[in-house]
Amino acid sequence: MQDFASELKGALTQILSMDSGFVEIIGLSLRVSLSATAFSCLLGLVLGAFLAVSKFRGRQGCIILLNALMGLPPVVVGLFVYLNLSRAGPLGWLGLLYTPTAMIIAQTILITPIVAALSRQVLEDLHDEYREHFASLGLGMPAQIRAVLWDGRYSLITVALAAFGRSVAEVGAVIIVGGNIEHLTRVMTTAIALETSKGNLSLAVALGIVLLAIALAVNAMVASLRLSASRLGYA
Amino acid sequence: MKTIRKLSIAAAMTVTLAVAGTAAAQDKSILVQSTTSTANSGLYDHLLPMFTGKSGITVNVVAVGTGQAIKNAQNCDADVLLVHAKASEEKFVSEGYGVQRFDLMYNDFVIVGPAADPAGVKGMNDVKAALTKLAEAKAPFASRGDDSGTHKKEMSLWKAAGIEPGGEWYRSTGSGMGATLNAGVGMGAYVMTDRATWISFGNKGDYEIAVEGDEAMFNQYGVILVNPEKCSSVKQAEGQAFIDWLLSAEGQNAIRAYQVDGQQLFFPNADPGQMKKAG
Question: Which of A63, A113, B10, B21 is the most buried (most CB within 10 A)?
Fold first, then answer.
C-alpha cells in the first residue's frame, strides 16, 4: 500500500501543476452544480415561501413529504432520471442522457427539496413574526411572499449554499446520468471514483482536496455573509 | 440590492451557458458502451485521438461492467457496444439488438495475490487446480460480483472446477475491477483480474501475479454496432466508421502498439475476412 504522506505530496504537485484536464473537471463540476443550485432556488424558494405563508388542507402532509425528500439517495435520483432520459424511456427523444444537462436535471431534483424544506422553515418563522403587521397592512399573498423572501435573504443564501454543497459533493446521481465521459461529463466526484478504481490515488486525493477547499470556501462565504448581515442589523 | 441583482444575472448566465454548452457537443459524436477494463487500462486514451483525428468523429465512452453496458445498449443508450462476454454478446445480436458481432482483440485473465501467498498457488498454470486449492485453503478471495464480463468468466471457471464459492472467505465486492483490486489488496485477498487492468493498476502494494497462462483464462473482446432498426437514434454511419477503423490494419496496429511499462496489453485478432461475411 502506498502511504498517505507520499499520496499527499503527489496530490499537491498535481494541484499546483493545474493541467488543463484537471481544470476542465473542476470547471464542469462548478458549472453543473451552480446551474442545479440556481434552478433549485427558483423552484424551491417559491415552493417553500408558498408553503410558509399559505393555509390549506394537506399542507402539513406536503411539509412532511418535503422534509422526507431531503433524504433522497443520489443513486435513486440518478436511476429515476436515467430511466426517464434513456432512449427507451418517456423522455428519450430529447437525447439528453450522458450530457451535462442530464446531470443538472438530476442534481436539481436532488436539491430542490432541500431548498424548499429549509426555506419553508425559515420563512414560516419570519411570517409568524410579521403576521399582525401583514394583517394591518392588508397585504395579499404575493406581496407577503415577496416581503418574507426579501427579509429572509441572508438565511436563504445559507440554504442555497447548503444545497450547492450537497450537489457538488454527490457522485451517485451524476455517474449514472452523466456516464463519467472524459471531456464531456466528467466532474470531480466521478473523477475521484475513477482514479481510485485505477489505483491512481494521488490524483484522487488531489481532487478530494480541491472539493474540500470548495466546501470550505462555501462555508466561509456563509459565515462572512452572516457576520456582515448581523453588523448591518445592529448598525 | 445591487449585489443581489448582479448575483441573479450571474446565475442566469450560468444557466444559459450550461444549456448552450451541451447543444454544441452534440454533432458528430458517437456513444460507446464499454467495460471498465478497457477504459481503466488507458487503451481508449491511446486509440481515440487517432480515430478522431482521422475521421472528425468524437467518441464518448461510458465505462461500466459488461452486464450494465449491454443493458444500456438494449435501452438504445449507445451506438456501439465494446465488451468481453462472448455468450452475452451473441445473445445481444441474436435478439436483434446488435447488427453483428466482430472479434476485436484479446488479453487474458490472471489471479493476483499477496507476495506471502498463503494458499500456495503461486506459479500454477492450471486454473481449475488453483481455484480448488484456494477454496480448500479458504484463502480470502475478492470477486467482482457485478455481472461484468470478468465476473461471468470467474463464475464459469469456478463451475468448471466444480466449486460453489461461498462462505466467509469469498467476498463479493459488487464493484468495478479497480475497486475490487483496491479492496483485495486492502484485505489480503486473491483477485482474478484481466491482465491489462493489472499492469496499469497503480496501487499494487506487494501483490504479484500468482496464476497465469491457462487457455481457459483467455479474454476475448468483441465489438457490435447497435441495431438501427431497433434503435432509430443509432448513428449508423459514424458507429460503423469506428468499428471499421478498429478492425482495419491501422486500428489493429494501434491496439498492438499500446503498451504500459513496456508490456503490450491487448492482442488484436480481428479476422480480416469477417467484414466480407457480413456483407
Answer: A113
Tens-digit pLDDT profile for residues B85-128: 999 999 999 999 999 999 999 999 999 999 999 999 999 999 99
Which residue of chain A has the CA closest to B33?
A: A179
What CA–CA distances, in Å, run from B3 to A68, B8, B49? 33, 9, 45
Structural domain span for residue B43: 27-107+220-278
Contact indicator for B103, B222 with CB cutoff of 8 Å: yes
pTM for this model (two decimals): 0.82
Q: Are residues B39 and B90 in the same domain?
A: yes
CATH of the domain at B189: 3.40.190.10
Third-level CATH fold of A27-200: MetI-like fold (1.10.3720)
Q: Which three cell numbers stand for residue A35?
A: 446551474
Q: Is the ipTM of this complex over 0.90?
A: no
